[in-house]
Amino acid sequence: MNVRIFEIFTSIEGEGIFYGTKTxxxxxxxxxxxxxxxxxxxxxxxxxxxxxxxxxxxTEIDSQIxxxxxxxxxxxxxxxxxxxxxxxxxxxxxxxxIPTYLESSCFDVDRFNHVLPFIDYxxxxxxxxxxxxxxxxxYEKLISESLKCxxxxxxxxxxxxxxxxxxxxxxxxxxxxxxxxxxxIRNSEKISGFIIQPTYGISEPSxxxxxxxxxxxxxxxxxxxxxxxxHKFIGAP
Length: 237
Ligand code: SF4
Prior knowledge:
alpha/beta
């Protein structure tokens, strides 16, 4: 089996509940979606980056793991596009006793479940209706898959948190509906964090919008946080 990897690099985690940690990023090539705020557009084509055999990819990743690395992120693009390869790469990292981390839009629960046993930390990214992620007629299906992934991750007792990117285009009623759906799942009390991430440099939400969104989540989940992307402020990739 081969895998297409866009880039591998060490940096500071700039998002989510583990922001500030030294992280090796393995950015898989390919994402079929079109979020208007995407900041990794070069990695979206499935033929971007470089093709490796699994053995060569493992060798390359191993050679780039620095001392004191907190975790290895499988990111993209969307890693679920190459889920079988990601499962093999993640297993190798777990065998080295380094935590693995998956960041995905969770568009397919079967692919997600294939990778999940080899992942320790899971970021479930829920897309808002206005993100232009998918054609609007497919939006409900996407959210239904993401919810199944969330339940699956919690059931397998992974450290699981939620991220939602919001912009000035995000409608508070849509955001609130999404939050209501998320907290209808069983075991939602086992969610490890809820991050509202404002877009940066494009259609940025106002402070008032962010506070309104925070107020939607807080009554259901007190550990909600508004966290911008740290790496954009410190000039890290
Ligand atoms: S899902 Fe992620 S990688 Fe794909 S277009 Fe959206 S932001 Fe970019």
